[in-house]
Amino acid sequence: MNQEALMQAVSGRVLETLEAQEAQLDAQIKKLETLEEDDLEKLRERRLAQLKAASSQTQKWKDAGHGTYSELSTQQEFFDVIKASECVVLHFYSATNAYCPVLDKHLKTIAEGHLETKFCRMNAEKADYLVQKLGIWMIPCVALIKNKSVVHMLEGLDELGGTDQFSTHFLAYFLSTKKVLKFDGPPPESVLDDGVAKAVPSKGSIKQSVFDYASDDDDYD
């Protein structure tokens, strides 16, 4: 075999080897792409299932009146509500108490943004049985209920800084520390903190202390 023929033979074998290696590499890449696509498909399916479950849960909450701040007219409605909803925030009010409308305003706002919790109000003067059983002695009073059990009673405004100037942001955070709703965002620095900018108390206002309630969102579920 002359030198030219030898070079052609060697070149041919090298080319065959390179082509074989390229084919093998292509097969490996294709396999990896297939595996990745399968993984992506599994993730898509899992995410779709989560979205469907979330949509179903959201609809159930809406059907139960979540997302609104409703009035309970009878004590039987109270029992129906705590049976239907895992988390309930119930404001016992009096038409003659000046602070009740303040709480109403904040609770209505929070209710619209927290579908996971049922928010409602009830005239304490028309709920003698519940007032007695729950030991309500001060108005306003907000009963925080989870899994049909009262986990906390917010009586008066002492836990809200002893002032009617507390922010909606602070009240939402306070409720989250009792595990009756989920709270997103930074913890408030004071009862006046609206979650947007650091509040500066005006001259002559009640001095506010920094509240540091322990909160663990993982315990909500």
TrEMBL record:
<dbReference type="InterPro" id="IPR013766">
    <property type="entry name" value="Thioredoxin_domain"/>
</dbReference>
<protein>
    <recommendedName>
        <fullName>Thioredoxin domain-containing protein</fullName>
    </recommendedName>
</protein>
<dbReference type="Pfam" id="PF00085">
    <property type="entry name" value="Thioredoxin"/>
</dbReference>
<feature type="domain" description="Thioredoxin">
    <location>
        <begin position="74"/>
        <end position="157"/>
    </location>
</feature>
<dbReference type="InterPro" id="IPR036249">
    <property type="entry name" value="Thioredoxin-like_sf"/>
</dbReference>
